[in-house]
């Protein structure tokens, strides 16, 4: 693992390491994270792509779970998010998030010697699908949680958003995300509300990217070429879960596994134990059934927030 500094003071051996930023193709600094594994001989690699208005550090629970099972785990903050550079939620080019992610995944594959498993949440799941379907980087498989494959917003909002994307593509506007509905775990909600790195806004160009990518990945679903686990929160109030069912119907049946959690909210990996435990159990079972990980240890039960 490259040298870096611990992100948390006085934290455990599985705490994330913050590396020096990587530079995107246009020079934008991208914050990079690594989670050490306690296993003397680490197995396969996983790369996490976070969602809109948040940062990779919010996926620490999932990353620690993977690291405890022997995985090498990495992530970066999207430009305009978290510790990365750029104005909030701003893109210079519409596909910047895809290019940034592909570049970091290629570098991580070279670093570890493994094509990584990509774990994408929400916006990160959409970026992961673009990377996979565009064949932009080597990867071993996909785990997608709550992807925005169908927009949950009134129809009257779309025309002004598209006009914003054309006339003021870099103007950041508040994104109507209710933190109270991301998880039933009140500690998760409280931390999200108080997180200074969480910028709950969107720009016209980013909205345009989501709009265009949604149509693109839906059309390309039959070409999915990697084993994929699709985890869907059935009571999601951030994205429309029905979009995931449509994508699953279009994707090759032998490659995609769909798991539906009727009462879970948007952040299935950050849910309360009642809803998170089945998610982590399903992820563990799926990993055990696919030749991605070279070395796995530990139980399937969901880790608790620390």
From TrEMBL:
Organism this protein belongs to: Bordetella hinzii
Superkingdom per UniProt: Bacteria
Pfam families according to UniProt: Hydrolase_4
Keywords from the UniProt entry: Hydrolase
Keyword Hydrolase: yes
Domain Serine aminopeptidase S33: 42-272
Keyword field contains Hydrolase: yes
An example Gene Ontology molecular-function term: hydrolase activity
Organism taxonomic ancestry: Bacteria, Pseudomonadati, Pseudomonadota, Betaproteobacteria, Burkholderiales
Protein name: Alpha/beta hydrolase
UniProt-listed InterPro entries: AB_hydrolase_fold (IPR029058), Hydrolase_4 (IPR022742), MAG_DAG_Lipase (IPR051044)
């Amino acid at each position: 693992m490259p040298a870096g500094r611990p992100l948390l003071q006085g934290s455990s051996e599985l705490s994330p390491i913050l590396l020096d930023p990587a530079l995107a193709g246009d020079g934008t600094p991208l914050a990079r994270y690594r989670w050490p594994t306690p296993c003397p001989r680490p197995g396969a690699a996983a790369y996490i792509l976070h969602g809109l208005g948040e940062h990779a550090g919010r996926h620490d629970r999932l990353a620690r779970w993977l690291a405890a099972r022997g995985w090498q785990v990495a992530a970066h903050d999207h430009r305009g998010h978290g510790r990365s550079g750029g104005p909030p939620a701003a893109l210079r080019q519409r596909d910047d998030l895809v290019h940034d992610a592909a570049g970091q995944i290629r570098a991580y594959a070279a670093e570890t010697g493994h094509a990584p498993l990509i774990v994408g949440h929400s916006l990160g799941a959409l970026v992961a699908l673009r990377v996979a379907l565009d064949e932009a980087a080597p990867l071993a498989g996909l785990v997608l949680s709550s992807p925005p494959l169908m927009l949950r917003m009134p129809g009257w909002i779309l025309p002004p958003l598209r006009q914003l994307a054309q006339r003021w593509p870099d103007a950041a506007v508040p994104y109507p995300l209710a933190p109270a509905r991301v998880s039933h775990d009140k500690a998760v909600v409280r931390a999200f509300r108080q997180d200074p790195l969480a910028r709950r806004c969107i720009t016209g160009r980013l909205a345009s990217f989501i709009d265009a990518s949604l149509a693109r990945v839906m059309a390309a679903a039959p070409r999915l070429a990697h084993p994929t686990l699709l985890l869907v929160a059935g009571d999601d109030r951030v994205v429309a879960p029905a979009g995931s069912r449509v994508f699953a119907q279009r994707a090759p049946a032998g490659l995609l596994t769909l798991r539906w959690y009727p009462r879970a909210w948007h952040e299935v990996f950050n849910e309360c134990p009642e809803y998170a435990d089945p998610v982590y159990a399903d992820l563990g079972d799926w990993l055990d059934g696919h030749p991605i990980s070279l070395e796995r240890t530990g139980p399937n039960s969901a880790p608790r927030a620390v």
